[in-house]
Amino acid sequence: MDAFRFRRDRLGLFLARLRLEAGDCREVWLMHAAAVQRSENHDSLTAMKTVFRHRVATRLWHWINAISIFILIGSGLGISNAHPRLYWGSYGANFDPAWWELPRFPAWLTIPASYNLAISRRWHLFFGLVLAFGLLAYMIVSLLNRHFARKLRVRRGDLSRRNLLADLREHLALRFHDPANPTAYNIFQKLTYLALIFILLPLVIFTGIALSPAMNAGLPWLLDLFGGRQSARSIHFLCMIGLALFTVVHLTLVILAGAINETRSMITGWWRVPEEPRP
């Protein structure tokens, strides 16, 4: 009787173990099926499509600007090393109090690497003209093809507190475009590009013109507009800092958004974005 009870208990334990293992297998299978379903859903959500994003004029101006600003900053720092002090007003020299005493910039930041004021000024003047006429041409083309109206027009709803906070949350989540309209600029892009195109770049160009003695003869009112030569020089340097900060932030966002995809879109005009999930 004891032996029979023992065998019965062993059989019960064995059957119980089989049921348990069968249940575990079923749970594993269900988990696997759910994972496969999630993967399929994820793939459908991240299916990519190609859209046309940038016209030729925008792409050309972008790369001309990138080269010009890089050389202008380097040559400008080389020019700054000749007298690394900033003043306000019309005059400033070694014995005048400076509002900012700049450091001497290292060779790896300046163009040319060795100190040569004449060469730095030649590079600076040439690419300053490239920047100025490039901006003028871009403005004319963008008005004619309605690029400004289509891409940079700020509507009343764009500036609402709700929309600004929503765009801020999207940026913090590293989502930089609207899936329903991926080629549209968000409000932060619009405001940044408007400030760059219509404030910062014109300001750096006209303060640079005001620093040219030859241009002073033909446009003497420019110095008065900026409050004197040294004030124009200070504003010019601050604009350079603004352009440098814009470049750093711009490159950081390009990397976060996908450097290869973003760069390809600025070369070819075509941009890959996730397709909208189908209902």
UniProtKB/TrEMBL annotation:
GO terms for molecular function: electron transfer activity; heme binding; iron ion binding. The keyword Iron applies. Gene3D superfamilies: Transmembrane di-heme cytochromes, Chain C (1.20.950.20). The keyword Acetylation does not apply. It is a multi-pass membrane protein. It is found in: Cell membrane. GO terms for cellular component: plasma membrane. InterPro entries: Cyt_b561_bac/Ni-Hgenase, Di-haem_cyt_TM, Hydrogenase_cytochrome, Ni-dep_Hydgase_cyt-B. Residues 53-269 form the Cytochrome b561 bacterial/Ni-hydrogenase domain. One of its GO terms (biological process) is respiratory electron transport chain. It comes from the Bacteria. The chain crosses the membrane at residues 60-79, 123-145, 191-215, 235-260. Keywords: Cell membrane, Electron transport, Heme, Iron, Membrane, Metal-binding, Transmembrane, Transmembrane helix, Transport. Belongs to the HupC/HyaC/HydC family. This is Quinone-reactive Ni/Fe-hydrogenase B-type cytochrome subunit. It comes from Sphingomonas mucosissima.
